[in-house]
Fold:
Amino acid sequence: MDRRYFLAAVTAAAAASATSVLADDDRKTSKPTSAATPAGTVVKARVIVIGGGMAGATVAKYLRLWGDAVEVTLIERMPTYTSNIMSSLVLTGQRTMSSLSFKYDALRSKYGVTVVFGDVVAVDPITAKVTLADKTVLTADRIVMAPGIEFDTVPGLGTSDKMPHAWKAGTQTTLLANQLKAMRSGQNMVLTIPLAPYRCPPGPYERACLIADWLKTHKPGSKLIVLDANPDFVTEKDNFTNAFLGLHGSVIEYHNNAGVQSVDPANMTVYAAGGLTVTGAVVNMIPRQRAGGLIAATGLNNATKLAGDTAFRFAGVDVLSYASTQPGAGKVHIIGDSSATTQPKAGHIANQEAKVCADAISRILAGGSPDPAPVTNSACFSTITATQASWLHAIFQYDSVSHSMLSVAAATGASAGWDKDSFEDMNKWFGALMTDSFA
Amino acid sequence: MNPKNHRERLVVVGSLLLVGASLAAQAQTPPPGRLLASNCFQCHGTNGKGPGFDKLAGKSANEIYKDLKEFQSGKEGTGLMAKHSMGYTDAQMRQLSQWLSTQR
Structure:
């Protein structure tokens, strides 16, 4: 079976939902972009990447960019990626959904990544086998899992779409944007912030600022009630305190220690800790988060419990290579928001975790060891108004004593306030980051 | 020949011997500084070649190192790059500058 036939079989199987099993001896040598290499010369190592978000796309690209010794198959459910970064600007009508859409074409054509659109239903972490919904089985030397996050069930919400999270950009974003547009002046909106750790620590606060600014001109008299499950601003405290209490003080009503206990979508009511009951014409309900379902299904959730949890939420990893810390599962690496590290769950640093992981896998497959002193960085911008932004930054260095990434104090912090220049920088950063990840 | 030049020449000869001894292993070992320098790519483009903020490819190692030191000294203000430059050791800055200088 040559490589072309293997690909055709995968495609046909996906199309017809037929059964196709690929055994180890189906491994071939040619690059996915070229069938010219004669079969049976050099057997390349094979890496399967599950999930084509910021982390998954970047690791697939860099595994190929940094060496031709590895065949990479990226498995993703959706034909395009919708960026969560910048998606709050869709709510205020400043960006379109299509401006957040990214394709996998460049990963294929420029880097020779094999992209398979399908749904992974099982991962065997010991034998490194991946089973798709159509029963196709793929084998690899290493598996990289980047399935992002999943939301906890909100008591009372059921299947109602009246309280969108809009925390995975897509139809939920459009839904919330339409609800906001339809809201009458003088009516209130509620935004809930889950207990940390969640995706994009400054994200809910920046969304609150952006919407508050928008309400002032588009819905005069309306208020934004923020229910924060955390005891205080999770990050960028100075800027968000000044923005919430100062600049947007007439619009934002902020409650800390106000975790959501249940909701009643029929009456658009939210019941929060401390006996707090609030209603809103629009409710942006951002639930608690855990690793994408495949992590728990594979038995790799072994880190992070919040009060009352019976199961761990995220995947523990060795941050030198992002290999799972679950005994026997060392061939599986977990990057991005699904992993439990000292680093934030966010797209920019997921891109860097992916590079560390790609470098480590390349070294390991060549018989070596990961770089003993990796460095990562996190950077992002927060919209404080429709035209002004702040920034937040950190660098992490590996600490061999705690075996974790420690933030460098002098390199960690936010801008002193916000301005128009940073808003422009934000747009430039977004373009650069997405190109580095997808093109 | 001064002692410094002599040492450099010995290093070069040593490297050549290494290459000769194990070409395959050499090809698979990532060049030093590449992973460190990849921290620049999110904002300056893959391999420092854009799109994004200032292009880094095409600059000499000294230029990049000097720029980072200026950001670190505060001469360039209190922007994001001033903060970023505080995160690396001097050796790391030299190493990533050296690797970036190989990009044209």
